[in-house]
Amino acid sequence: MNRPGLVMQAAYIALGSNLNNPQRQLQQGFAALLHLPHTQLVAQSSLYRSAPVGYADQPDFVNAVAAVTTGLAPRELLDALLAIERAQGRAREIPNVLNGPRTLDLDLVLYGERVLDEPGLTVPHPRMAQRAFVIVPLAEIAPGAVVPGLGCVSDLLRGVNAGDLVMLNPVAA
Length: 173
Prior knowledge:
Oligomer: single chain
Largest sheet: 6 strands, antiparallel
Number of helices: 4
Radius of gyration: 15 Å
Helix content: 10-25%
């Protein structure tokens, strides 16, 4: 899995789905992460149901977060995540709908403590601190993770409204 001299980096990926059996879509997403080159899935959160953000005329989402260590550069990891989305039927061409329905959404929310702002890639994810469906599952698996410029995940957890989140399946300890 790892080549000699490869620098491994912790990264966190938010998963979301609200189409075609969302729980199964997330499980398939986790399974696909196992097959990424130079990457190891080290933790996965429980699954959570959440109301849609923005475009409300759609089913509820199922969300989770995965922790990986990876030798892939941030852009390489993002490209691999987009390939997984496409393999599961994700289409981004829904006209005039932001945050619309999807079979699988994989967002690179943290890559170590790196700050990146490139076309198509912003890390940390710009809205993660306001989204309970990201912060709650992230805090479940990595409460001590640091979001550059914002602080520790466990501190950010106190600032989100998690009232509409429902844990669907706790991860066994």
